[in-house]
Structures are given as structure tokens and as C-alpha cells.
Write the C-alpha cells for this entry.
Amino acid sequence: MTDVLPSRRLNKRKVAAVCLLAPLFLFLVYQVALFIMVCWYTVQNPRSTAFMRQTLNELQASENHTADITYQWVDYDTISNHLKRAVIASEDSNFMNHGGIEWDAIRQALEYNRKQASQGSAKRRGGSTITQQLAKNLFLSQSRSYFRKGQELILTYMIEFVMPKERILELYLNIAQWGETTFGAQAAARHYFKTNAGQLSARQAANLAAMLPNPSFYDKNRSTRYLNSRTATIQQRMRQVTIP
């Protein structure tokens, strides 16, 4: 009898250890799989993204059963430098210098958004860097859970570790959402200005960059006072931007 009790206690400890370690092991396996995918995208262009698939599923689940995504990949050298400068000026002015995350910018965005909300304004400012937005758009969903945000941060560091800034910007410009079903610089240039991504003027590029925080809204409201003002501000800032 005395031999059985210690054996049972030992078995319970083993089960408890397995229960604790199994989720950690699965989490690590998942991170390794994501890291492999990040490495893959350093040399391969995505055919679609998690954001595109989620958007399409939501549209098709609603009344728009025939909805489809407009997306066409274009290489970095065939995208207008105006657009590269405009997006950096608008979304991530310190893009060339940071390691993926700007903690001060996140805190400032939270404070700004709280102030705007208290005043009843719909204006919002994002604190995410271009690399963070790439991580979210490429791999994750639009949910706002703490787990999703934590995973975004991990992916951001992975991307910055293996990709040069030029590749990060190339991927971002090609998969960013610029309308309800419009993704990427080429589709946006065709949709809004009937031109190619390489032929965008400084004004057109600034206008596209100004749409990024709320692309679905600006797809339907293309000439609001705020959008025009934001476009002019971005166009002025573009002159100071260095691109990879």
C-alpha cells in the first residue's frame, strides 16, 4: 500500500507537467512554423494574405456573394518613389532607423485617440510601424485580442531580423488595403487614378497614403476636407523622407 501511493503521486506530477509543457511546446512549434514562413517571404511573393482572405470571406458571407479581391503584384523598382516616400511619411517616418516597433509612437497614438474619442471625433491615429502592419496583414486577422497583438510583435521582430527594409516596404506596398476589395499599390493606382503604380504623381501618392488608416471609408468618401488636408500635409513631408 505504501508503494502504491508514491507511485500515484508521481503519475499525477507527470500528468501535470505534460499539461503545462504541452501548450508551451505547441506554441514554440507554431512560432518556428511562422518563422519559416517569414523566411519564405523574403524571396517569394505572396499570392494572398490572411487579411485578404478574411476580407473576402466576410464579404461573401454578407449580401455580396460574388465579391472578389483586386490584387496584382508589382516589383519594388516599378512602384513610384513618390508612393514609397508618401507611405513612409504618413505611416512610419522613422522606418529606416527603428528595429520594428516604436513604443513612444504607440503611447502617443493611444493618448491622441483617447482625446479624440472624448471630443466625439472619429479621427484616429495608429502607432504601428510599417513592419507591424505587414506582420498583421500578411499573417494575422483584424481581431483586437491581446494574443493577436502579442503575436504581431513577435512576427515584427522576426521580419526585421531576416528582411532588409527594401523587402519590407515592397511587401507592404503590395498587400496594403486601399479599398473595400482593393489591395496593393498597382490595384490602388488603377482603381483611383486609372494609371500604374509606377506612374503615380506626388499628389496622387500622397492621397493614397492618406487613405491607409481607413481605406474602406475613403473608397466611398474620396474628397473629404480631412482627406484633402492630410494629403497636402503628407506631400510636404515627402521631401524629407529617405527610402530604401
Remarks:
- Residues 4-40 form the longest helix (37 residues).
- The beta strands are 70-71, 182-183.
